[in-house]
Design a protein that fits this description.
205 residues, mainly beta, 4-stranded antiparallel sheet, two-stranded antiparallel ribbon, 8% helix
Length: 205
């Protein structure tokens, strides 16, 4: 049975149930320190890119704040999707953020997907998404009447054979079995739908 108060083993609570694990905020100002082995800044259950919500006694939401990486030792790169500046591009608007600790080249990469349909375009679902080897040459693509052709192929520095029968098509396999750039197979597809909100991934590959 789900514990109704602090004191049970931390694993008995929802990972995000801070008041259940540690008690409610009972005064106008509050300062306390807790240790929680069920929360992490890394891995699939990382809290980075999520949010903290403070509730009223009746359960309604009173305040909220996003959990973002704040260390100066974090490197972030951003893919901007702007169909207005690229008339030959797919009608997507938004950004995809990639962040990693600057001093840990083998560490997890936090990926925040914040995209939706551009003005006049319809929402759509279950899109594959990949990192490709080249920076875009939008002018060349438009002049040639092609769509993102200058991006080249998928990033695959380890030479994974994607044509092999055993190549994993869905998340759940060891990271090294996928192309580095095959985010869809490794992490899952994404929706181009502003109503769906932001989506956060942690990539160990």
């Amino acid at each position: 049975e789900y514990p109704s108060a602090p004191g049970a083993a931390l694993g008995a609570y929802e990972a995000g149930d801070l008041s259940g694990k540690f008690g409610k905020l009972t005064s106008a100002t509050w300062s306390a320190t807790y240790e929680d082995a069920t929360l992490s800044l890394f891995g699939a259950a990382s809290v980075v890119g999520r949010s903290v919500v403070v509730h009223a006694p009746d359960g309604s939401r009173k305040a909220c704040a996003s959990l973002v990486l704040t260390s100066a030792a974090v490197v972030t790169t951003v893919a901007y999707f702007d169909s207005a500046s690229d008339p030959d591009n797919f009608a997507v608007s938004g950004r995809v953020f990639f962040s990693q600790a600057a001093d840990d080249a083998a560490g997890d990469v936090s990926i925040l997907v914040d995209v939706g349909p551009a003005s006049g375009a319809d929402a759509s679902a279950a899109h594959n998404w990949h990192v490709h080897v080249n920076a875009l040459d939008v002018a060349a693509d438009v002049a040639a009447g092609t769509l993102c052709a200058s991006a080249g192929g998928h990033l695959n520095p380890t030479g994974v054979d994607v044509s092999a029968a055993e190549y994993p098509k869905v998340p759940g396999s060891a990271a090294h079995l996928y192309e580095v750039g095959d985010l869809a197979s490794r992490l899952g597809t994404v929706d181009v739908d502003a109503a769906a909100g932001k989506v956060f991934f942690t990539d160990s590959g």
